[in-house]
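DATA SHEET
Item: assembly model
Revision: 1
Owner: S.N.
Input lines:
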Amino acid sequence: MAAAVDLQGVTLARGRKNVLTNVTFSLDSCEFVGMLGPNGAGKTTLIQALLGLVPASHGEVRVFGAVPARGNPAIGYMPQSRAAAASLRLSGFDFVAGVVKGHRWGLPLLHRHDRREIAWALDMVGAAELARHPLSEISGGQRQRLLLAQALIGRPKLLLLDEPLMSLDPHHQQDVVALIRSIQRDLRITVLFSAHELNPLVGSLDRVLYLGGGQAALGTVDEVVNGPNLSRLYGSAIDVLHVRGRIFVMSGDCEMERDEHRHDHTGHGRHASHV
Amino acid sequence: MFEYDFMRHAFAAATVVAVLSGLVGYFVVLRGQSFACHALAHVGFTGATGAVLLGTTPLWGLVSVTVAAGIGMGMIGDGLAQRDVASGMILSLSLGLGLLFLHVYTAFATQATALLFGNVLAVDTQTIWSLLLLSAFSLALLAFISRPLLFASLQPELAEAKGVSPRWLDILFLVIVALATAESVQIVGVLLVFVLMVGPAASAQRLTTRIGKALLLSLVFALAEAWCGLTLSFYTDWPTSFCITALSVAIFVTAQLRYRHLTRR
């Protein structure tokens, strides 16, 4: 059986700048993989490449053995920007239903089969009750469940989740991770989950994919997240501290992930200045 | 009142336009594009007056210019909304240009008032047929694109990943909005298009969160506003556009109050 995701010597560019250079790795099916790395390290670009939205400038990208193409029914996707949903005066059910066969022309009428599919997706994320409420009146964490239900429509074999934990408080973060882990196990699918912080994910991950300095490192948390390995990846001195089951990645005197939250949207180049 | 030809014509025209604006308006409000309606109406003024100057019917001048502007806005994309100063200048310029055209055409003041504030009582049979034709075309196009349009409105990035082109849908939708706006101008005029295009849909969205119900409510409100406005105007002798505007605002305020009441509970 073909790997869920396979990259061979892949270079991805955003604009004129290469964000990943000559990267090779592959994800097995039924794997829960956390994708970590600073802003600008290429997490979103990699997801877009797998969706067929960004072509590789070099190398070969394969999703279940095929060249990535838009509209691949095997892929479910949760985009990063989802602030718009918060202001919609729309029931959760209609929000999820809007995705069903959304690529086809014609009236958005739902057949019995479509309704079953929506009910199934809502059940999977535990949002059957939630779907009756308007999006504007539920919490961010609850909205997240509906977005996940949208991603599950069509029963994908690979879920690409772009920063599902962003702007959620720690308690809700744990809920979302646990929910996605259980869905991944129930449906036996592959999940690629991008995040800023490793700690909420640590207990649930099969493997971790670290991006940084144009490179990627894939392995178990212990294999990848250690001082020598990350120092090599980022090309600067990195220490990894373990404190009571939590992991802190330190660049010089600064904690890298914590730092990421403070200065959003700055390139990863700035890490050199911390050293 | 139906013994008068002009009232029968007015009711027919208002019905055709209300059906279109009520349904299109729902998507306009859902997509947060009410500014586009407003802008297209202003740009349409130049088209209508230009057509008068060239000696053709204002409706076709209105239609061609609003459709062209709709396509242009769709191609420029999201950037337009952020450039509010530039947009405002262009809108003011189109009203100014319209005024100039009217001035060159012997300063025909009634024509200007009719375009700015609408003159549904002067609609003739030929115009009604034109309106009907344009409405049928717009609604057919809207029905054809409604499923992907809804998808792209709710989740543009996911839609793009699934092979839908939000950009093309935006252009097609703005063509529909342009046609609906041009039609609404016939009823309530350039300056008051907002009440027909946005009012009913915005009220509907405050009363229900289901798409089907909201579309139906928006349609009912638009028709009720048009019919009651005409009737009120007939018996009071107040301008039709004022009556429709007043009803549209009244329904919106009621819907808003009810919505507040519900959400506070």
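QC remark: Chain B touches chain A at residues 30, 143-148, 150-155, 157-164, 205-206, 209-211, 263 (CB under 8 Å).
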